[in-house]
Specification:
Blueprint: H1 53-63, E1 69-70, H2 71-78, H3 83-98, E2 102-105, E3 109-112, E4 117-125, E5 130-134, E6 142-145, E7 157-163, E8 172-180, E9 185-192, E10 196-201, E11 210-213, E12 224-232, E13 242-251, H4 255-265, H5 274-281, H6 289-293, E14 296-297, E15 303-307, E16 316-322, E17 328-335, H7 337-340, H8 346-354, E18 358-360, E19 363-365, H9 370-376, E20 384-394, E21 400-411, E22 414-417, H10 418-427, H11 433-452, E23 463-467, E24 473-478, H12 483-504, E25 517-519, H13 525-537, H14 548-559, H15 565-575, E26 580-582, H16 606-619, H17 627-660, E27 667-675, E28 679-684, E29 690-694, E30 703-706, E31 711-714, E32 720-722, E33 726-735, E34 740-750
Parallel strand pairs: 14-21, 15-22, 29-34
Antiparallel strand pairs: 1-3, 2-3, 4-5, 4-7, 5-6, 7-8, 9-10, 9-12, 10-11, 12-13, 15-16, 16-17, 17-20, 18-19, 20-21, 23-24, 25-26, 27-28, 27-33, 28-29, 30-31, 31-32, 33-34
Helix pairs in contact: 1-3, 4-17, 11-12, 13-15
Length: about 750
């Protein structure tokens, strides 16, 4: 069927295609995505690439929903001039009739079936071909193909016409109106011709490029990473949005360009507004005498901080002293940020907006200006500081006798790095050795009790880098968590738990006072069943119907130190519900706590500031605060936390690719960590960098995906490569702009 309206064709960026950087399942929300195809496709531009003939016909009806068309009117409108085209048209029309998308009128006329629902929902781009609309108006998500998206992007709020479907078929729809755009700025690669350019978005699932005219290039050169603002949306399909370059990051692949583009991609701020900085600078560093009178004075109690060696802000400290009855008084002292940041201040507004500090590989994007985060609120050694504290009376076995909450003034006697504290634990020598070892012994008892109560012992693998002065990675290693890390963690967990329990216990039923909780639901049964199959591929048994905590903790013990530890731990964590902030006291499954809050990091987390304010309000005898207002802040904080985590992962991936760029030709042992229609993903054992072996590079046979069994099979040889196999791979490419690593398979070392 020929049409007057030429197809814009162009790139098919589905599922990051053969670039090797996407994890399986990342690219499609509900269905496995089709692989293959280059990212650039045939090089043409357009918003409606690869538009199907069926889509064009349906679009014609949708653009004139009240019009009744005869066959002749349809052929004339679509520019069809031959019999073959007319025959093709009627095949499509009859298909749309069977799908209830069209109605037959008077035996020879056709009209769009208007007996459809109109829903409102958010766009979730599955790949470059279609999106799902997630709506509270319908239980099932509605699929919308890109030619019917009206240029809606991921996260946009849209009004959608849900089309009639065959019984049992997937709901499909068409965007009627874009109600709210989540963003109008995109990061991408500038490609220039003589007088204009196109920005190819970094977001691989986006289905259009952005046209930039000569006047709006603002100095961008071909090959630069840029931030483009869309200033005009097309009024008809098949065109490109028009944009203006508002920031040039520099040549793609360079450190500053890539890190800045990651910041812009995730909407992270580059600096604080001047007015916010000025407000911070005006805060006095003097502690008024009147303030001291309102606080518990703990300056004479032995106090120290334990943090990473390169930390600049210290928002928590521990104090310890022996009581006359033989028990220990252990204080968890937290920077009193809300003493300095007042509810209606510019600092408060900015902290809420950011909601969290973001830790990229080579820099921190703080929630609060340096004047506060590294100065006034940082519990630096040999300085008096205002703190908010939870003080425990506890014995050598970790039994808790009493807890006190309130504002304090403290004095840190020593700043320890984790390595220095660990040295005292291992050698039994050095200053404050008795205090650190006492805390460590009690922490071990607290941890044992948590695990006995059902806490999950899984830990994520944290990849760290050693960088030179220009930010280039010199090495990649996996951070090892030792007793010093766990010591701090246990006392922070205890403080967070007790704060939540205290506030929860102040009321009953609907009269319980509003609090900000950190909640974590039970694992999804379907995901758990799938994970048990994955674990079985490695020879481990996980019973999804058993005691989940016990099953997962047994697995943790079995896989410790094994090559597959990282892969299985990451998969196990994915089975869990996502932790979030909420005013509902729903408990924390992973920690096995009935009530849990975040209280211990107000320098870097806005929910901790909320918890501080609420706790003090209730200590002062205040009544319950507005629950809905705090719930809205919780939702925002959870969203910003996810954005920060995504940005942090993107920066890690970029640095991994940058590091592997200098290892081309090297061979590494790895684990098959995913299988797709276009390749297998392999995680290198020694540094956890992940890349792809494309099926097209396996020259000994033609391999096909057996998705049910998480493996690929050679058509002739019946050779099998499965999820979990140990393999030897060679690095053959590292694409900095795409953040992908290409590998070739050398041999299979061990089958699972």
């Amino acid at each position: 069927m020929r049409s007057k309206r030429p197809s814009k064709g162009g790139r098919d960026k589905d599922s990051r295609n053969e670039k090797g950087g996407s994890r399986r399942g990342e690219s499609s929300r509900r269905e496995p995505s089709a692989g293959g195809g280059s990212r650039r496709g045939d090089g043409q531009r357009g918003g409606g690439r690869d538009r199907s003939a069926k889509g064009i016909v349906l679009e014609m009806f949708s653009n004139s929903p009240d019009t009744v068309f005869t066959q002749r009117q349809m052929t004339r409108k679509l520019g069809i001039v031959d019999k073959k085209g007319r025959d093709e048209l009627m095949v499509i029309v009859n298909t749309l009739l069977r799908e209830n998308k069209l109605l037959l009128i008077d035996g020879d006329k056709y009209q769009l079936n208007l007996r459809v629902n109109i829903i409102t929902g958010r766009v979730d781009l599955a790949n470059s071909k279609y999106a799902y609309i997630v709506s509270e108006d319908t239980e099932d998500d509605v699929r919308v193909f890109r030619e019917h998206l009206k240029y809606a992007m991921d996260g946009d709020l849209v009004k959608v016409k849900v089309l009639p479907t065959m019984q049992g078929g997937r709901s499909e729809g068409m965007v009627v109106e874009v109600l709210e755009r989540s963003r109008t700025e995109l990061v991408g690669l500038m490609e220039l011709t003589k007088n204009f350019g196109f920005v190819v978005p970094d977001f691989k699932r986006l289905y259009f490029d952005v046209f930039v005219g000569e006047r709006n290039l603002n100095g961008a050169q071909s090959g630069d990473k840029v931030l483009v603002k869309i200033i005009e949306w097309p009024k008809e399909p098949g065109k490109n949005p028009t944009g203006e370059v508002i920031r040039v990051f520099g040549p793609a692949g360079e450190n500053e360009a890539e890190i800045h583009s990651i910041m812009a991609e995730f909407g992270l701020p580059f600096e604080f507004p001047e007015t916010v900085e000025e407000e911070a600078e005006q805060i006095s560093d003097k502690i008024p005498a009147g303030e001291l009178a309102k606080r518990r004075d703990m300056r004479d109690v032995t106090t120290f901080t334990i943090d990473p060696a390169d930390a600049k802000d210290f928002d928590d400290a521990l104090s310890i002293q022996k009581l006359e009855n033989g028990n220990w008084e252990i204080g968890v002292h937290i920077a009193d940020v809300t003493h300095y940041v007042h509810p209606r201040s510019l600092l408060e507004k900015e902290a809420f907006h950011r909601a969290t500090s973001v830790y990229l590989v080579d820099r921190t994007i703080p929630m609060l200006p340096e004047r506060l985060s590294n100065g006034l609120c940082s519990l630096r050694p040999n300085e008096e500081k205002l703190t908010f504290s939870v003080v425990f009376e506890i014995d050598d076995n970790g039994k808790l006798y009493d807890t006190w909450y309130g504002r304090t003034i403290t004095y840190s006697d020593r700043r320890f790095s984790y390595e220095e504290a660990q040295e005292r634990i291992e050698t039994g020598e050095g200053d404050f050795v008795e205090e650190i070892n006492t805390l460590n012994n009690i922490a071990k008892k607290l941890q044992a009790k948590r695990f006995k109560n059902g806490a999950i012992s899984f830990e994520t693998t944290e990849v760290k880098f050693r960088l030179d002065e220009k930010g280039k990675p010199l090495s990649v290693y996996v951070k090892e968590r030792k007793d010093a890390h766990k010591l701090i963690e246990e006392f922070m967990l205890l403080a967070n738990k007790k704060v939540a329990e205290f506030v929860y216990g102040l009321g009953k039923g609907k009269k319980r006072p509003t609090m900000v909780y950190r909640t974590h639901g039970s694992p999804d049964p379907d995901k758990l069943s799938t994970f048990s199959i994955f674990a079985g591929k490695f020879g481990y048994k996980v019973d999804p119907d058993g005691d989940i905590s016990e099953e997962l903790n047994n697995l943790t013990h079995e896989i410790e130190g094994k090559p597959e530890q990282s892969v299985l731990q990451n998969l196990a964590i994915r089975t869990m519900a996502k932790a979030k902030y909420s005013t509902e006291p729903e408990g924390h499954f992973g920690l096995a706590f009935d009530h849990y809050s975040h209280f211990t990091s107000p320098i870097r987390r806005y929910p901790d500031m909320m918890a501080h304010r609420l706790l003090q309000h209730y200590l002062d005898g205040g009544t319950s605060e507005d629950k809905e207002a705090f719930e809205e802040r919780c939702r925002h904080s959870s969203e910003m936390e996810k954005r920060a985590a995504d940005a942090e992962r993107a920066s890690i991936k970029y640095k991994q690719v940058e590091f592997m760029k200098d290892t081309i030709g090297n061979q590494y042992k790895g684990i098959v960590s995913g299988v797709t229609e276009w390749g297998i993903f392999v995680e290198i054992e020694e540094n956890k960098c992940e890349g792809m072996v494309r099926l097209s590079s396996l020259n000994d046979d033609y391999y096909e995906l057996d998705s049910n069994n998480y493996r690929i099979i050679g058509r002739q040889s019946k050779r099998i490569i499965s999820f979990g196999d140990e393999v030897l791979v060679e690095i053959v490419g590292a694409n900095m702009a795409e953040r992908t690593i290409d590998m070739e398979l050398v041999e299979t070392l061990k089958r699972h």
